[in-house]
Amino acid sequence: MKALAISGSAKKGGNTSFMLKTVLEGLEKDGIQTELIELADEEVKSCTACYNCFKNKNNKCIIKDDNINLYIQKMIEADIIILGSPVYLVDITPKLIAFMERCGMVSIANKYLLKRKIGAGIVVRYRRAGAIHGLDSINHFFLVEQMIVVGSNYLNIGIGRGSEATNLADSEVDEEGIKTMIDLAHNISWLVKEKYQ
Ligand SMILES: Cc1cc2nc3c(=O)[nH]c(=O)nc-3n(C[C@H](O)[C@H](O)[C@H](O)COP(=O)(O)O)c2cc1C
Fold it and tell me: Residue 168's pLDDT band (boundaries 50, 70, 90)?
């Protein structure tokens, strides 16, 4: 059983990464293998609408100069996919959107590679707006891919200032957000047991 988490934050080790790690630690306690990929230092190209994935049907995107094909393979091998993003101007980051476009189209072109995998989104915000909208964007991806979406005791949203000054994850003090992530892990573990045992 494997969980793959992807952070679309521009910052490595920031608030998004902290909240994703909180979920992954919960899953590890229940015996689930985990991996976190932070896209911060990588370029992720947008879909070019070439539709070669529908022509080739080889589980791959034709764009080869980034890591998307590696990540598609990792998603195929994972049972649980967790996507995380900070809110950037009232939505998720362009990097995570590009990631979802490319992986999502390849999945659909190949008879829904992600179908019935477990999916959970998390979003981290600082100001008043954008978190619910961002979480909806991630959940819409899961729904279009025919995945099974898991929730928590409240929406999977953390709060962090962005740590411009310290470069540390200040969401570490967001107790409600942390509890939400821990309960999300419990719910994913429960579903895994129901689904596979
Ligand atoms: C370009 C940019 C735009 C942002 N826009 C918003 C916003 O619209 N709403 C909000 O609540 N926070 C916004 N933020 C703040 C981040 O979402 C917040 O600081 C988050 O905790 C950063 O997560 P990170 O540490 O993973 O980068 C913005 C931050 C940046 C860099």
Answer: low
Whether 9 lines ligand 1, by a CB cut-off of 6 Å, is yes
For 98-118, b/e burial (b = at least 16 CB within 10 A) is bbbbbbbbbbbbbeebbeebb
What pTM does this model have? 0.96
Residue from 149, 94, 95 nearest 122 by CA: 149
Confidence label for 163 from pLDDT (cuts 50, 70 and 90): low
Ligand 1 atom 15: residue of nearest CA: 126
Say what the pLDDT of residue 91 is. Answer: 96
* Residue 93 near ligand 1, beta carbon < 6 Å: no
Number of compact structural domains in the chain:
1
Which residues span the domain enclosing 88? 2-196
* Best mutation site among 85, 97, 127 for ligand 1 pocket (most ligand atoms within 8 Å of CB): 127
Q: What was the pLDDT predicted at 167?
A: 54
Enumerate the H helices of the chain as residue ranges: 15-29, 52-56, 68-77, 94-109, 131-144, 175-196
Q: What is the CATH number of the domain that holds 153?
A: 3.40.50.360
